[in-house]
Amino acid sequence: MTDIHPSAGTAGTAGTAGSAAPEERVRLSGPQFQQDPAALYAQIRRRFGPVAPVLLDGDLPAWLVTGYREVHQITGDAHLFARDTRRWNQWDNVPADWPLLPYVQHNPSVMFTEAAEHRRRAGAIGDALAGVDQFDLRAHCERIADRLIDAFSGSGEADLVGQFALRIPLLAVAKMYGMSESATPQLVRDVAISLDVGPDAIPAYLRVQEAMGRLLAAKRDAPGADVPSHLLRHPSRLTDEEIVQDLLVVTAAAQQPTANWIGNTIRLMLTDSRFAMTLSGGRGSVGQALNEVLWYDTPTQNFIGRFATRDTHLGGRRVRTGDLLVLGLAAANADPHTSLDMSADLMGNHAHMSFGHGEHGCPYPAPEVAEVIARTTVEVLLDRLPDLALAVPAESLVWRPSVWMRGLERLPVAFTPTYAGGG
Ligand code: HEM
């Protein structure tokens, strides 16, 4: 079994998340979150209960919430467990180059707003996404998948992470934003660079921001049936700066999780004999695979987070004002202390925590939009390449080294070569 690597942490002040004895904290970093995180979460839960004292990168203390009930409780009480990262009691210990800064550095987007202001911003996003014609989106996703497959179908081999899954969500977002086809490739390139760690990330982010500003100006002149136009005319009277910020959040929030949902679903279907049997013609099983991935290999395995607004108790722990609670979404989904029967067929059971929950959860109908994108593109892939098979042994597939996301580095496959547009 994976070792928890108890750590001798140093950060933290008495009485906060940093108050647990140093030797009793789990280091929330390192390769053990990569290959078999489920075993690790079970081990953490057994040893620490539903709320575990952890150390983030740089030995900063926090709580990892692995209990289903506790994640539900936190996400359902936005008053006690709030979202504005400026509430964190560890800011004095955060170095300027801290690798997790992108998750916690406050910006004026919907992500870090609270209460009435959050309802105003998130409500507008929900309304704008509800305006997306899902039939239209589905037809567009079929075209996206077809074009991507056309690019590799003649070769008989592909990496379905790099050449397929990672490329899809942004192309779908560009369509929902009513962007011109010519502006899309540059945006896709810049968003990809901006989401990576490295010196090019910030300039790329600024280019994406400028592109959103230009898009908004164009939509003001010529509104359409798209997300930015909807936000511009929304009764909540958003400013241009607010809309640009929130278009950036929606873009980033859609990209990596949806790409991983697609990649993890294809992996499941190619490695689990229940799906292999139905690959030729078994369309119904894509929905089942998508749902199982949300339970067992969810794209956002851990999420930062919530901040206690006052001293309280949670899962038998004393939590202090300003403590950071990391939502252990994958761990919560696998929590044996729920009323859910995990041995039962999960088809149709959507009670997982994979989209978060409550006021700050993935805003309705974003999960539906993500499902249209994921389901359509996986179905097209299986239709176009019916003898698709893994090109490497399943055990040699490598997960990306992230505590936060769950997705493969590469998904090498082989199939009978076909020609563009052909079956
Ligand atoms: C079209 C695709 C998607 C869009 C547009 C989208 C949009 C968003 C937005 C705007 C937020 C911030 C909500 C807020 O601060 O109030 C959010 C949060 C979140 N999304 Fe999504 N998302 C998408 C796909 C996904 C997928 C596929 C997953 C995982 C399966 C996911 C999981 C989450 C989680 C875990 C949160 C945080 C929830 C919480 O704090 O309780 N999203 N999403």
TrEMBL record:
Disordered: annotated span: 1-26
CDD domains in the record: CYP_unk
A molecular function (GO) term: heme binding
Biased composition (Low complexity): 7-21
InterPro entries: Cyt_P450_B, Cyt_P450_sf
PANTHER family recorded: CYTOCHROME P450 YJIB-RELATED, P450, PUTATIVE (EUROFUNG)-RELATED
Similarity section: Belongs to the cytochrome P450 family.
Name the record gives this protein: Cytochrome P450
Protein source organism: Murinocardiopsis flavida
